[in-house]
Amino acid sequence: MQSILSSMRALALRQSTVEPLRLLHLSAVSEAARKGTREKARKKKVKVEVKKVGFIPHNQRNKKINVKRADKHVDDSWKQVPKDDCYVGRYYRWPVYSVQEAIQCHRETHHPSMYNVPNAPLNLNIELNMQAEKITRFVDNFQRMAMIPHKFDHGEERKIIVFTKGNNEVLEAREAGASLVGGVELIKDITSGELLLSDYQYVIAHPNILAELVALRGLMKRKFPNPKSETLGTNLAEMIVKFSSGISYSAVKDEYQQNFGLITASVGTLDMDVQKLEENIRFLLQDVNTMRPKREGRFITRVLLKSPPSSEQLKIDPFLYVPEMWDKSTAKVKRDGAKKQTEPAEPQEAVASN
């Protein structure tokens, strides 16, 4: 009996010593677990405040939203050619007209029995592939003045001021039709405020007055004459005629598609002779082609003839007037020819002795 009691006391003593140890050992782990669950519960209880945003106009919204947009370069070469005169346009290729046919079609729609606008303007829409030599680069927007052989009323006020020295140059500019011609005295009038440059749309200068003209660089800004814009040169008469009667156009890239550019320019009126209109179109396309990047593929992708108020647009073939693809061989020949012109000529005596 005593042995049984002693064994029970030992067992009770052992249990009393083990339980505190066990609790002491497990308390840190359980406390850490409870701490983690408490933090998670606190985070769940935090209310997310949603900021209410008022109406935002479409042109002020975030432009980084990726919206799938249709490719503006129209390629219908995979479509079939229509076999008759009655067909659904979207399932077939665009018909390609000659310039004479397109002008005649527009004249019929502007007949007195229809729109009754016989002298409506004839506009040219030129679509461009603005990709540069590298895939990640694109041609910058450009603005040019194309010289045309046949003048027409473009409906713009073009006042031209010419800076030059010398009696011969001044007389040449006045005979060509410049609005105002002068030299150093003209520069003084502008700096003193007696004459406003804003009254004149174009500024042309001769190189002989360039040193004095630098004083007006801050006032002119982008209008300052330079060879790239063809406003600085020795042939004043040609420049004045070009800016007074030429076609002013600008190539603008699409906001969302950087490799697509568009030019809209007027080449004349419907009551002009067809041959004159075609020559104006040729000169305009050749001037646009001078901005072509040095890469393979097309630069001018599509050309459409329009004549408001009609919404009809007729496709013509621009590659009758300009090359379709960039030719490396012709570019190399032109570059070599330019180098030969810039190289100094050898003395005739030395060539004869050799």
Q: How many strands in all? A: 10
Question: N-to-C terminal Cα separation, in Å?
Answer: 143 Å
Helix-strand string: HEHEEEHEHEHHHEEHEEHH
Determine the CATH superfamily of the domain at 103-150 and 246-332.
Answer: Ribosomal protein L1/L10, rRNA-binding domain
Estimate what percentage of residues fall within beta strands.
15-25%
Spatial strand order of the main sheet: 1-10-9-2-8-7-3
Helix percentage? 25-40%
Alpha-carbon Rg, integer = 39 Å
Unreliable parts: 21-26, 337-354
Main β-sheet, in a few words? 7 strands, mixed
What would you call the structural class? alpha/beta
Q: What spatial form do the alpha-carbon principal axes imply?
A: extended
State the CATH class of the domain at 103-150 and 246-332.
Alpha Beta
What fold name stands as the CATH topology of the domain at 103-150 and 246-332? Ribulose 1,5 Bisphosphate Carboxylase/Oxygenase
Q: Enumerate how many helices there are, as a single number.
A: 10
Q: pLDDT average, as an integer? A: 83
CATH architecture of the domain at 103-150 and 246-332: 2-Layer Sandwich
Structure write-up:
The protein has 354 residues and is α/β, with parallel strands linked by helices. Among the domains are: 103-150 and 246-332, Ribosomal protein L1/L10, rRNA-binding domain (Ribulose 1,5 Bisphosphate Carboxylase/Oxygenase); 158-240, Rossmann fold (3-Layer(aba) Sandwich). It is 36% helix and 16% strand. It is built from 10 helices and 10 strands. It has helices spanning 2-45, 99-109, 167-176, 184-192, 210-213, 217-220, 236-245, 274-289, 328-342, 348-353, and strands at residues 96-97, 121-129, 142-146, 160-163, 180-182, 202-205, 247-253, 260-269, 300-306, 313-316. The strands form 2 sheets. Strands 1-10-9-2-8-7-3 form a 7-stranded mixed sheet. The chain has a 3-stranded parallel sheet with strand order 5-4-6, with helices on both faces. A hairpin with a 6-residue loop joins strand 7 (247-253) and strand 8 (260-269). Residues 21-26 and 337-354 have low confidence and may be disordered.
